[in-house]
Design brief:
Elements lengths: L1 H10 L4 H7 L4 H25 L37 E4 L2 E10 L2 E4 L5 E6 L6 E2 L4 E5 L2 H43 L5 H40 L2 E3 L4 E6 L6 E2 L13 E4 L4 E8 L11 E6 L2 E17 L5 E8 L11 E6 L7
Helix pairs in contact: 2-3, 4-5
Length: 353
């Protein structure tokens, strides 16, 4: 590159001596010659720049120019596809292995049978409760007022029965005396009819008052049951996993919008825990009820949980092409909790489990 520049400059160099001589050696001629030489040199540099002599890469001679990186071509020429998802079940060492979760067959969101304001919640998450234990109480002021009114009406009806019984006894004695006097001609027939009618009327009143007592007792029993329903009780023995209501909130057996709650807590029967496993359709023939199973929880990978196949759910999933299998746990353990992930190995016949 330096050699090319030198040759170009030599080719356009002007001999200033003859110009000065032609000018008679004057200084003015010398100045004009210098100016002309500078102008020619500038023009030459512009030409050199435009032709690329001064715009070469700084890469040393002989060094290969770097080429842009190209993506690795694929066999089909299309963009590479993501790796396939892990299968739900697979066969390893001759045994079928499926993935699933711990589920509770008996779980309930405990609610009240009536609508009311929560007065007190007596449970917390993780608490073990017994069947029939009070979990929460609702404000039952109005219900207790209705119960007191029903009891008062029952007492009034029972008092009316006692009064009617006393009047009936007197009326029957009067009827007997009048009948005797009428037989002896000491009393008229009209007196006998009147006494008989009074006794019959009191008998009817006594029957009515006894019916009123039965109705009052039924009302008292109903109101007492309604008062008891303001206490939310556990339907079975289990562990509280969620607390859904707080004192002061309105709770209702059916959702009505707003801030109305539909449950006090979620109760799980830990004795009903089992594994629910999804098995690919292609491998379901390797599973049968009663088959021995070894389960491994993700939380305890070194612990083998003995189990057995309880049932095969008789339906398949179109989206995943899998069938659910229920697996019963042989021995309950407090480390097994609902919704835990697990790997289940279905053992072949003749292998221990």
């Amino acid at each position: 590159m330096q050699r090319d520049k030198a040759e170009l400059l030599r080719s356009i160099t002007i001999d200033r001596t003859p110009a000065a001589a032609r000018d008679g050696g004057g200084g003015r001629g010398l100045a004009l010659g210098v100016a002309a030489g500078v102008a020619v040199a500038v023009i030459a540099l512009g030409i050199a720049w435009s032709t690329g002599l001064l715009n070469r890469s700084t890469v040393p001679d002989g060094a290969p120019a770097a080429s842009p990186a190209k993506p690795a071509p694929t066999a089909s020429g299309a963009a590479p596809q993501p790796a396939p998802a892990t299968p739900v079940s697979e066969v390893r060492s001759g045994n079928l292995i499926g993935s699933g979760y711990v589920v509770a067959r008996r779980v309930a969101t405990v609610s009240a049978d009536v609508t009311g304001r929560v007065r007190e919640v007596l449970v917390q998450e993780g608490m073990l409760v017994q069947k029939g234990q009070v979990l929460a109480t609702l404000d039952d002021v109005l219900a207790r007022s209705d119960l007191d009114l029903a009891r008062a009406r029952q007492a009034s009806a029972e008092a009316a029965v006692v009064a009617n019984q006393a009047d009936l006894v007197d009326a029957e004695k009067t009827l007997e005396r009048t009948r005797a006097l009428t037989g002896r001609q000491f009393s008229s027939e009209a007196d006998l009819i009147k006494a008989d009618a009074r006794a019959a009327s009191l008998r009817a009143q006594l029957v009515k008052s006894k019916a009123d007592v039965n109705a009052a007792r039924a009302t008292v029993a109903y109101d007492a049951e309604m008062v008891d329903r303001y206490q939310v009780r556990a339907p079975f023995t289990g562990v509280v996993t969620e607390k859904n209501a707080q004192p002061g909130e309105i709770i209702s057996p059916m959702s009505s919008g707003g801030f109305t709650r539909t449950g006090i807590c979620t109760l799980v029967d830990m004795d009903s825990l089992e594994f629910e496993v999804e098995v690919n359709e292609a491998n379901i023939a390797r599973v049968h009820p009663g088959q021995k199973v070894e389960a491994t929880l993700d939380a305890y990978p070194d612990w083998k949980v003995p189990a057995s196949v309880l049932a095969i759910i008789p339906t398949a999933s179109r989206e995943k092409a899998t069938i659910k299998v229920r697996v019963a746990i042989a021995a309950k353990d407090p480390r097994i909790l609902p919704n835990m992930a697990a790997k289940v190995t279905f053992l072949n016949e003749g292998k221990g489990g």
